[in-house]
User: What shape does this take?
Amino acid sequence: MYDVLVIGSGLSGLISAFKKSKEGKRVLIIEKRSTIGGNVYDKPSYNGILEQVYGPHILHTNKKEVVDFLSNFTEFFEYEHKVAISLNGELISMPFNINSLYEVFPRTMASRIEEKLLSKYEYGSKVPILKLKEENDSDLSFLYDFIYNNVFLGYTMKQWGGLRPEDLDAQVTSRVPISISRDNRYFADKYQMQPKHGFTRVCENILADMKNTAIMFNTDFREIVRFDEKNSKVYLDNTIFNGEIIYTACIEDILSENIVLPYRSLRFDKEIISDINSYQKYSVINYSNTQNYTRVTEFKKLTGQENINGTVVIKEYSVDYNKNAGDYSSIPYYPIPIASNFNSYEDIKSRVNSLFPQVKLLGRLAEYKYYNIDDAINNALSS
Ligand code: UDP
Assistant: This one.
């Protein structure tokens, strides 16, 4: 009946399903939630302000193919993400850059450090915080200590359940390098935009453009798919399924053994504020050494809806992942990028690959990788 089975309708699953359907395959998508798009799902909240239900999602990429693909399903509005970090009651430009230097230090000092930075690094270059540590210069060591202690340490420990920047794979803090420039944009990518009507609409449009495709919502794949380890066979509705399986859920759920790979989860405290039109100066403000939350997002500022009255904000708390809790904490958001977890993952992956060669693992959960939106799309397009 079906040629391809896709587990999960997040960007990875949905776009991979789209690709298969364009190749003329009959596709069944199985989705646990009642909604499409995985964690990019958004919905209208107060006065139609789009609420990104699973936290802020921002599109930025250097890959033209990603933009070209999405352009078939949405118009965009230009959006350059700007973030500040709250420090001693002031808002400091993030990623930390030359402007930030002048925001936090007296002018003469800032200018001396700027000169040092520009003598060492080319204008426009990016220096991960853990690289700056290696500099053998008293001003740059001072700068490293300042940024490490005020920008990275508190935030990282909140976000990663007590882990410090140096405990994590270097890719984590390298996502937000120090920028040797006066560019206050959070991302440096060539293409920066948001879909005009949000991400859910994009996903709905992709789905609507697929032929020979069925999608089952509210269905945990384990209700109808059985991975039989003993015989290396997969059953769909009790019938052997030999087709390709694009699997985007947690990899460990393929195996019968009760393995739990570590993740971080999130809790969002939402506030609808009807009597003000702007809650904060930036769409996202980070908090490192103050507050228990990591960041506050004001949606209308990143959905192109600043003209709407009232506002909707979320405070984002990082929480321990508790797979069986049945509440927000049972949603896996972030794989925890440390060597021991990568090793556990590789072990599971080699077992899955040898037992079920028809399974293709795709996306943040199945590949245990900290993918951005554009990576997820690009990988799905080449799946
Ligand atoms: N980070 C930080 N302070 C900040 C912003 C980021 O320490 O103000 C660190 C932190 O470890 C975080 C990582 O950099 O988890 C990646 O940040 P990013 O903004 O990319 O996180 P995401 O939006 O993916 O949650």
In short: Residues 93-179 form one domain.
